[in-house]
Write a structure and sequence with these properties.
9 strands; 355 residues; 11 helices; globular; two-stranded antiparallel sheet; alpha/beta
C-alpha cells in the first residue's frame, strides 16, 4: 500500500498546543480516559486504531429485532428496549481526515469530561451537566488515514489549497476537486500525486460508504454495527468547510420527522452561534436537500437522527473561536434533547413530521 506525506501548505500559522489533532495525540487522550469507557471500534484501512470513549449509563439490553424489522412490526420496543431511558448520542468526528476542527473539539470534550476542564483549562460545568443526562459515545477520528496525510489545520489556506489538501491532486497536478471527488469509489490512487484527507488509505470516502448491502470500508461497517447495537438516538457528524459555521440540509431520503428536526436544528444552531458572537453562515433554504450519506445509513441502523455540522476552516475564526463553535453546537443539541426526543420511535416509524 502506497504511503503519502502530510499535504504541504507553506506559511500556515503555528497551532496552539491544545489543538491536539495528530493521530498519536488523539490515541493518547482517548485511551487515557478513566471515567469514560474506552473501546477499540475498528482498524482503519491503513491499520491505524479507531477508538471510542463512552460516558453515561450502561447500554440498553438488546431487543428481539433490528430497527427496520421492529419499525415495520409497529412494536418499536422490539428494537428500542429503553425508549424512556437516557438517550444515546454519538459524536462522530474526523470522517474526513483533512477536517480537524471536530477532532480538536472531541479530544477537548474528552479532557473536559475527565478533568472538569478542556485542554485550554476552561471549565464548562453546564456542558458537563448536560452530558451526564445521556449515554454519550465520542469517536474522535473515524478516518485516521486521512488525518495522517493532512495538515494540523487549514486556517490561512486558500480555497484552492483547501480543495487540494482535502480532495487530492491528479498526477498532472490538477485538483480532483468537489464534486468530482465523489465520482470514484474508490479514488484511483494510481492516478493521484496525493489523495487528500477525504478518503481512507484505500481511497474510500467514508461519508458516502453508505449503500445498503454494499458497505466497503471497515470504518463504516463497524460504525453502523455500533449504532445498531447501542440503539443510538442522535449522530452528530462533525465536518468543516471554507465558510462560516452552519449545519446542512436534510437528505432526500430522510424520515419525515427527521427532515423536520434537521430544519429545526439548523435554526437553533444559527441562533445559538449568533448569540455567542460566532458569526454563523445564514441557514440554507428550507427546500434545499442533500444526497444520501452515512447519516442516512445510521438512521436505517437505529432510527437515529443524523445531523451534519460544518465548522469554518478559514482564518477569520481564531482557534479559540473554532473550539467554542464546537462546544456551542454540542450544547445546542444536548439542551434541546432534554426538551424533545431526537428520534421518538413511534411517530418516526409511522411517518409523522412531528413527534
Amino acid at each position: 500500500m502506497k504511503t503519502y506525506p502530510v499535504f504541504p501548505i507553506p506559511n500556515l500559522v503555528e497551532r496552539p498546543g491544545w489543538w491536539a489533532v495528530r493521530n498519536d495525540e488523539i490515541t493518547r487522550i482517548a485511551t487515557s480516559a478513566k471515567k469514560g469507557q474506552v473501546a477499540h471500534l475498528a482498524n482503519s484501512a491503513g491499520g491505524l486504531p479507531i477508538h471510542s470513549v463512552t460516558y453515561g449509563p450502561t447500554a440498553a439490553a438488546p431487543g428481539t429485532g433490528s430497527w427496520i424489522s421492529a419499525s415495520n412490526s409497529r412494536r418499536v420496543e422490539a428494537y428500542k428496549t429503553n425508549e424512556e431511558g437516557p438517550q444515546v448520542v454519538v459524536l462522530l468526528c474526523g470522517v474526513h481526515g483533512a477536517e480537524p476542527e471536530g477532532v480538536a473539539g472531541a479530544v477537548n470534550l474528552i479532557h473536559l469530561l475527565e478533568t472538569g476542564a478542556d485542554l485550554t483549562r476552561k471549565r464548562r460545568p453546564g456542558l458537563v451537566e448536560l452530558c451526564s443526562a445521556y449515554r454519550l459515545i465520542i469517536i474522535p477520528c473515524l478516518n485516521p488515514d486521512g488525518r495522517a496525510v493532512s495538515p494540523d489545520h487549514l486556517r490561512g489556506a486558500t480555497n484552492d489549497e483547501f480543495r487540494r489538501a482535502s480532495q487530492g491532486i491528479w498526477l498532472d497536478g490538477t485538483e480532483v476537486g468537489y464534486p468530482a471527488c465523489k465520482e470514484y469509489v474508490p479514488l484511483p490512487l494510481d492516478r493521484v500525486q496525493h489523495p487528500g484527507g477525504y478518503p481512507n488509505a484505500h481511497g474510500y470516502n467514508i461519508q458516502h460508504d453508505a449503500s445498503p448491502g454494499d458497505i466497503r470500508t471497515e470504518e463504516a461497517r463497524k460504525l453502523l454495527e455500533m449504532v445498531a447495537r447501542e440503539q443510538v438516538d442522535l449522530v452528530l457528524n462533525m465536518h468543516s468547510h471554507p465558510l462560516a459555521p452552519r449545519s446542512l440540509s436534510p437528505c432526500v431520503s430522510e424520515y419525515p420527522l427527521h427532515a423536520t428536526r434537521i430544519l429545526d436544528y439548523a435554526d437553533r444552531f444559527f441562533e445559538d452561534l449568533n448569540r455567542a458572537g460566532l458569526r454563523p453562515e445564514p441557514v440554507l433554504p428550507r427546500d434545499n436537500v442533500m444526497g444520501y450519506c452515512l447519516n442516512n445509513a445510521c438512521s436505517m441502523a437505529s432510527g437515529a437522527l443524523g445531523l451534519t455540522f460544518e465548522h469554518p476552516t478559514v482564518e477569520a475564526w481564531s482557534f479559540e473561536e473554532i473550539l467554542e463553535i464546537f462546544f456551542v453546537a454540542v450544547e445546542t443539541c444536548l439542551k434541546w434533547g432534554r426538551t424533545e426526543k431526537f428520534a421518538p420511535r413511534r411517530p418516526l416509524a409511522r411517518g409523522f413530521r412531528n413527534g
